[in-house]
Design a protein that fits this description.
Length: 360
């Protein structure tokens, strides 16, 4: 095959990949539909968007920005937490129930302020454990600077739930000067991540005790509002934010590529991964690009603000391992490309299946 023929073949494969769109073919819900990858996207597109479509929902971001009378803008988000086990190194379902929602609000450029919390509790659940979970939520709320102002409690029959499930909703105020959205992203922009990836998912996986593998890995669950404030102070033209939870870094970068119709080019050598986490992923055959995080953000910033943004992130203890991991290119449109440590390239698709169910 000539070089021209090889190039044409590559371009044809890229175009075929670009045309692929997740479609719902399943007749029943599976764990994969909750993993944040292709199956989740297909379920949302075929079931929920068809019924609920509106302008605020359409961007499918971490939450919605809502204009209110008087010119203020609010960010609103909601999330449910079913993690197993409920307590793990570095956190608990109580910490996640606060951090997960306040971080989604923060990714809209807002300063989180208020939460609601709803509990579905299985009959027979120990009150002592419930007190511990609620204490962790109170601690996390204080740390995040938010107030839990409303709630609900339901109890279901023994065996109808796995202990306790928690749903939180959050509201924050978006400062007038902050503008975010995929439409602002341009070729040449820089992709940043605020620290090591895959910590949370691997911490929960090992805490289940199903594997004969021991490692000192702790969840990164933490509120990100302070990091967002520091980022905007240093890089006021920050284009886009997302916290790479379910589906990991690889999936949120695909969401960015799809929303912008630009290429997200990642450099494998620059991805910050804790050696213990990397070793565990290798032993289990799991790609850290698809493992959930609960205390990291991904940002797209203008190239001339990238150094200042990195400096600001690294000045915060929660962003000490921040790194510039890639850039935005014009081509190949709508594709995430990884420059490998071997000198080659590979396409990074959205997560397929669910290698780590119930990690948040």
């Amino acid at each position: 095959m000539t070089s021209d023929a090889r190039e044409a073949d590559v371009l044809e494969r890229i175009e075929a990949f670009r045309r692929r769109r997740p479609r719902l073919k399943d007749e029943i819900v599976t764990l994969a539909h909750g993993a944040g990858g292709k199956s989740s996207a297909a379920l949302i597109d075929a079931v929920f968007l068809e019924a609920f479509t509106n302008d605020a929902l359409a961007p499918l971001a971490d939450g919605a920005r809502i204009d209110v009378p008087g010119g203020d803008r609010l960010a609103f988000s909601t999330d449910s937490f079913v993690v197993k086990p409920r307590f793990f190194p570095g956190g608990s379902i109580g910490h996640l129930a606060v951090h997960g929602t306040v971080n989604d609000v923060a990714m809209m450029g807002a300063r989180p302020q208020w939460l609601s919390a709803a509990f579905v509790i299985e009959e027979g659940f120990a009150i002592a454990e419930l007190r511990d979970i609620v204490a962790d939520m109170a601690e996390a709320a204080r740390d995040a600077g938010v107030t839990i102002v409303a709630g609900d409690t339901k109890v279901v029959d023994r065996g109808a739930a796995d202990g306790v499930y928690i749903t939180t909703a959050g509201i924050g105020v978006v400062p007038a000067e902050r503008q975010l959205g995929p439409e602002l992203v341009r070729p040449g922009d820089v992709v940043l991540v605020s620290g090591t990836i895959a910590d949370h998912g691997m911490a929960v996986m090992l805490a289940r005790g199903d594997l004969t593998l021991e490692a000192d890995i702790r969840s990164d669950t933490a509120p990100l509002g302070g990091l967002v404030d520091a980022l905007f102070a240093a890089a006021p033209s920050t284009r886009w934010l997302r916290d790479p939870t379910r589906g990991g870094l690889g999936t949120v970068c695909n969401e960015l590529a799809k929303a912008t119709n630009l290429a997200v080019v990642l450099d494998e050598a620059r991805l910050p991964i804790d050696p213990a986490v990397n070793a565990a992923c290798e032993l289990l055959g799991i790609d850290p690009l698809y493992v959930a995080n609960e205390g990291k953000l991904v940002a797209v910033v203008a190239a001339d603000e990238a150094d200042a943004a990195l400096e600001a992130l690294r000045a915060d203890p929660r962003g000490g391992a921040a790194a510039a991991i890639g850039e935005i290119n014009a081509d190949p449109e709508g594709i995430v490309v990884l420059l490998t440590t071997f000198g080659g390239t590979r396409i990074v698709d959205m997560l397929v299946g669910d290698p780590l169910p119930r990690i948040c």
